[in-house]
Specification:
It is built from seven helices and six strands, in the order ββαααβαβαβαβα. The chain has 217 residues and is an alpha/beta fold. It has a six-stranded mixed β-sheet. 24% of the residues are buried.
């Protein structure tokens, strides 16, 4: 398999070399069908499913028949809370439910590899030795760092959660910071570039090969 390489930059956005990315994670040809299914699965899990309407039996009132059955010249009515009445119950309305459906871990893991590969094969992965913000959040400094890289939309991946970096990008609408454990297909595909902290590559490899080892006979 062809060797996958990425630019290595320092905290000042200067290119200082190249990094070889694991081909069994960053070199897998993406399949649109698998990626689409995983995004559907993610979005279904995020749906609240709390929409709720009342049926005619749950709406308050309507116990008495509004008028006699016959001799009024009007259509027969049994309750003022029937669906055809204003303020009546709703027919076949939504009720609280879960939209989640099952998707095998093997497929989810493969999809994550394909999403990472889609950015690597398009030469949109940048590896950073560090970032210019360390002790205090500074959006302006981080924005200048991204501008030097020529990046407007990016997902920054760090080994573990970095609250300072997260606060630094909170006002940048097309930039997001994620720890390796939170890395997912939707966020990768939703950003044009992938910026990996150098030490995060090993963590990604560990996460995506952990299941493979468990599945071996």
């Amino acid at each position: 398999m062809e060797c996958i390489k990425s630019q290595l930059v320092d905290s000042k956005a200067q290119i200082i070399g190249e990094v070889e990315l694991p081909s069994h994670i960053f070199g897998i040809p993406p399949k649109e069908g698998i990626l689409h299914e995983i995004v559907r699965w993610q979005m279904a899990r995020w749906r609240a499913g709390t929409a709720c309407t009342k049926t005619r039996g749950e709406v308050r009132g309507g116990g008495r028949k509004p008028w006699p059955q016959k001799h009024t010249g009007r259509a027969r009515q049994g309750s003022i809370r029937a669906p055809q009445w204003v303020g009546g119950g709703v027919v076949h309305g939504p009720k609280p439910r879960s939209y989640e459906f099952k998707l095998n871990k093997k497929v989810r893991r493969l999809g994550l590899k394909m999403a990472l590969s889609s950015r690597a094969l398009a030469d949109r992965v940048i590896v950073a030795e560090g970032f210019p913000v360390e002790s205090t959040p500074k959006t302006k400094v981080l924005k200048e760092f991204l501008d030097k890289l020529g990046v407007r939309s990016a997902l920054i991946v760090v080994p573990q959660r970095n609250k300072i970096l997260e606060k630094s990008v909170s006002n940048l609408p097309k930039v997001k910071v994620l720890a390796v454990e939170g890395l997912n297909v939707y966020d990768i595909l939703n950003h044009d570039h992938l910026i990996l902290e150098h030490t995060a590559i090993e963590k990604i490899e560990e996460r995506l090969t952990r299941g493979d080892k468990n599945e071996r006979p």
